């Protein structure tokens, strides 16, 4: 008896553990052949889901009390993918913001903590970090900026888009 259980158990172990049961047919042809109505489904008609319009670049208005003026970003500086190269002209600033390694993006990140807390993080900062933090606070609706080791600047709230426009306007 134990030998037959061993062979049965061995055959069960070789079976796949999870066989997906799909609530929908695998192909459209199968779903259309089983439907009784002659009207096409709304999901298969060509006008059911038009392509959404392209989003325009949002205009960013800098706060009026910034210590260092922000230049507008010329439209020819932006590539079709939305990337903007360094505009330069930041030699007079007491701080620098480097770009990321290979892709040369601005190091501005959204950080989620817990389930509902959002932080904006600026990395690759050199020079007078306190001066950068005071101007960044004005850009982020006067939110307090925390200077952390690295150095990193952390602000409570989702200000990623505003900080990116501000850094691009400074020439970084």
CATH top level label of the domain at 75-170: Alpha Beta
Tally of alpha and pi helices: 4
The structural class is alpha+beta
* Mean pLDDT figure: 80
Ranges where pLDDT stays below 50 over 5 or more residues in a row are none
Distance between the termini: 78 Å
Largest sheet, if any? 4 strands, antiparallel
CATH topology of the domain at 75-170: Translation Initiation Factor Eif1
Q: Can you write the helix and strand succession as a string?
A: HHEEEEHEEH
Overall CATH architecture of the domain at 75-170: 2-Layer Sandwich
What's the alpha carbon Rg, rounded to whole Å?
28 Å
Beta-strand content: 15-25%
General shape: globular
Determine the CATH superfamily of the domain at 75-170: SUI1-like domain
Fraction of helical residues: 10-25%
- Quick one: how many beta strands? 6
- The order of strands across the largest sheet is 2-3-6-5
Can you give a write-up of this model?
By secondary structure, the protein is of the alpha+beta class. Helix content is 24%, strand content 16%. It has a domain of 96 residues: 2-Layer Sandwich (Translation Initiation Factor Eif1). It has four helices and six strands. The strands form two sheets. It has a four-stranded antiparallel beta sheet. Strands 1-4 form a two-stranded antiparallel sheet. Strand 5 and strand 6 form a beta hairpin. It is found in: Mitochondrion.
